[in-house]
Amino acid sequence: MPNFEALFDYIQKISGKLLSEDDKHLLMAHFKPKKLRKRQYFLQEGDVCKYIGFIVKGSARTFSVDEKGHEHILKLSLENWWLADFESFYLLTPSRFNIEALEDLEVLQSTNAQIEEYLKHIPAFSAMANVISQNYTIANQKRMQTVMSYTAEERYEDLISNYPQFLQRFPQNMIASYLGLSPETLSRLKKNSLK
To answer: How far does CA 62 lie from the centroid of its chain?
Structure first.
């Protein structure tokens, strides 16, 4: 039995609204459980992102690979976060990103058409989507500012204050990539912060 309670709790918490039993039945009928093993892809570069996924258990990374073969991590994701390349999902264009499970991953996934139905018929889902949209806009703006104008030390301190769980859940080389640092620089920053 998939864990829909995590999704229901998340929607109600973020929206501030209760889901009716009918709302829950509609969500259970259309959100499909999917399990991925560690290292399996939720999405591969060049494919259209047909699903958005809500993480019930596990973690993932969204990344691209440049022409020199270097990986660039755009996003690290944990439980109660959404997985998708939103540009590809909404515009139905080929994705420029890969989304890979970093641990065994359990998601509840839904299509664009189904999301539109939830937005029309489930007030709590619509309210949640508005809050998430605002939060993503703010988070992306902050992320751009940190990448463009923060020093390496400021980026690391910002990560510790906003996402301390990342340090326990993700390998150091991935955190370095996410911060736009070399692993050696991150190692030095970690040592200095322990002094």
So the answer is: 8
CA–CA dist 52, 58 (Å, integer): 16
E strand intervals along the chain: 32-36, 41-43, 51-57, 60-65, 71-77, 82-83, 98-101, 105-111
Q: What is the pLDDT of residues 117-166, one digit of tens each?
A: 999 999 999 999 999 999 999 988 998 998 889 999 999 999 999 999 99
As given in the structure block, the two tokens for residue 191 are 């040592």
CA distance 51 to 112: 7
Using one digit for the tens of pLDDT, what is the confidence trace for 35-90? 999 999 999 999 999 999 999 999 999 999 999 999 999 999 999 999 999 999 99
Cα angle for residues 82, 87, 91 (degrees, 5° grid): 120
CA atoms within 13 A on the CB side of 24: 14
Angle between helices 112-121 and 21-30 (to 10 degrees): 170
Q: What's at 98, amino acid-wise?
A: N
What whole-number distance in Å separates Cα of residue 90 and Cα of residue 111?
A: 10
